[in-house]
Description:
It is a single chain. With 194 residues, the protein is α+β, with helices and mostly antiparallel strands. Helices cover 23% and strands 35% of the residues. It has helices at residues 32-41, 84-88, 144-159, 164-177; strands at 7-17, 20-26, 45-56, 62-65, 73-76, 80-83, 96-98, 101-107, 122-126, 129-138. α1 (32-41) packs across α3 (144-159). The N and C termini lie far apart (72 Å).
Amino acid sequence: MEGAAPETTLHGVLVDVYGIGVLLLGExxxxxxxxxxxxxxxxxxxxxxxxxxxxxxxxRIVIGRGPSRIGHHMEIRGLGIINIxxxxxxxxxxxxxxxxxxxxxxxxxxxxxxxxxxxxxxxxPILGVAxxxxxxxxxxxxxxxxxxxxxxxxxxxxLMGVHAARNxxxxxxxxxxxxxxxxxxxxxxxxxxx
Length: 194
């Protein structure tokens, strides 16, 4: 079809978190669907589970949606197939959403290096569009849904020009160089340690 937007299908979960379209990717069994279910119970909205149909709408915009045959069903190990719309209502779903952040969930491996500062930014290419990406190691006891919520909030701040990691690194460099400090990094006085 002439003039049709480029399209692809991805294995993942798309969720609207604080208005940010977050695409959860990772190997089977890393907890993508469980994370999305946790996010829905926290008031966020499911767009697609397991299969995400993606279309590029412009040089910088990709939109994701779920296949109509799947609807807003999820497969949760131990529960089976559930219908998010029936369980949580229409406010818990969306039919399509711009993908603005990719979160790659991966099994935690002690030998791997993980970003601890957040200064360097990574991207994930989808149909020629570079989408900001975070790698989150998954292990027992980590609340991945909260980490995804914080990632979405932090992404919102970056869109407004506030980059906490870079600001912190700049303040730390000033402190090490003996330059005057901004009020962002607290200084402790004798009274603060009591």
